[in-house]
Design a protein that fits this description.
Elements: H1 3-16, H2 22-34, H3 38-43, H4 51-65, H5 70-74, E1 76-79, E2 82-85, H6 98-107, E3 115-119, H7 125-138, E4 143-148, H8 151-164, E5 169-172, E6 183-188, H9 203-208, H10 222-230, E7 235-244, H11 250-259, E8 263-269, E9 275-282
Parallel strand pairs: 3-4, 3-6, 4-5, 6-7
Antiparallel strand pairs: 1-2, 7-9, 8-9
Length: 287
């Protein structure tokens, strides 16, 4: 069967399974299954594919038809220009989270040596990208710590660390439980979906991504309450707390930060114009 015939067959299956971006997902799985580039795919459309590769492609299509995300099928997701390994049990890196890393890089650009903590690291995409970008762009020598409570996340973050050549440290910790140092910046994309909203999110997320990385309790704010209440103890004076939030959570998170003596609080909107990233400064301390 030619590549074109296989792609058409794959698109028909995914369309019938209500996969919204069925055309693109079929192409992604074809490139993965046949080990070809986007350009190669169009050059090989009339070629017959080996039966073994064709069977593997159809296996991938059938998995996607169950609404399993492509990233769990291919085992990777691009983030900040790096290819991160993705596995079941760990949140898939999102494009909007790149805004957090970009802002963190901007805010620390004047530091020749930066101590940074990536809390709730998941795949490690925030902390690892932050470290690699600073090293690539300015050859800075930083001290980066990644922390997560999930064994699955620690395992995948370690794999990404070695795959991408990062020098960060990775620790298992229930938020700040095992954190000892102070940092110039603490970055976090914590769980923030309200428990009652979990059933309403898209099937790919609800059924396949880990709820531990999604569920922010009944009000979606449980992790922000802890981050706002505990982070100042682990920041240098003038240190920065930068967090991703849900689109309707800024005012609540801002109030939590004000009540915990953070200052200069601001919000950054995502590509859709929704509130997405909060920045706050620890400019006062009780010690």
């Amino acid at each position: 069967m030619t590549l074109r015939d296989l792609i058409i067959k794959g698109q028909d299956i995914l369309k019938a399974s209500d996969i919204e971006d069925y055309e693109n997902d079929t192409r992604v799985l074809a490139m993965f299954a046949f080990g070809i580039s986007y350009t190669d795919m169009f050059m090989k459309m009339t070629e017959d594919m080996p039966d073994e590769d064709a069977d593997f492609f159809m296996d991938c299509i059938n998995l996607r038809a169950t609404h399993m995300p492509c990233q769990y099928i291919t085992g990777s997701q691009e983030f900040m220009g790096y290819e991160f390994l993705t596995e079941d049990g760990v949140l898939i890196p999102r494009q909007e989270t790149e805004l957090l890393v970009e802002k963190a890089l901007e805010l620390t650009s004047g530091l020749k040596s930066c101590k940074a903590l990536d809390m709730c690291t998941g795949s490690g995409c925030i902390g690892i990208s932050f470290e690699l970008k600073r090293r690539e762009d300015r050859h800075f020598d930083d001290e980066i710590m990644l922390a997560d409570i999930s064994e699955d996340a620690i395992y995948v973050a370690e794999k990404n660390k070695y795959k991408l050549g990062a020098k960060c440290s990775i620790i298992k910790s229930d938020l700040f439980e095992n954190i000892k140092d102070r940092y110039d910046i603490i970055m976090s994309n914590p769980p923030y979906i309200r428990t009652s909203d979990i059933d309403d999110i898209m099937e790919e997320v609800r059924e396949f991504e880990p709820h531990i990385a999604l569920d922010g309790d009944s009000d979606g704010l449980s992790f922000y309450k802890r981050l706002a209440g505990e982070a100042r103890e682990f920041l240098y004076k003038g240190g920065i707390l930068i967090m991703e939030i849900g689109f309707d959570q800024y005012e609540d998170v801002r109030e939590l930060l004000i009540n915990n003596k953070f200052n200069n609080i601001s919000v950054i909107k995502d590509y859709s114009g929704l509130d997405r990233i909060v920045v706050a400064y620890a400019t006062e301390h009780d010690y």
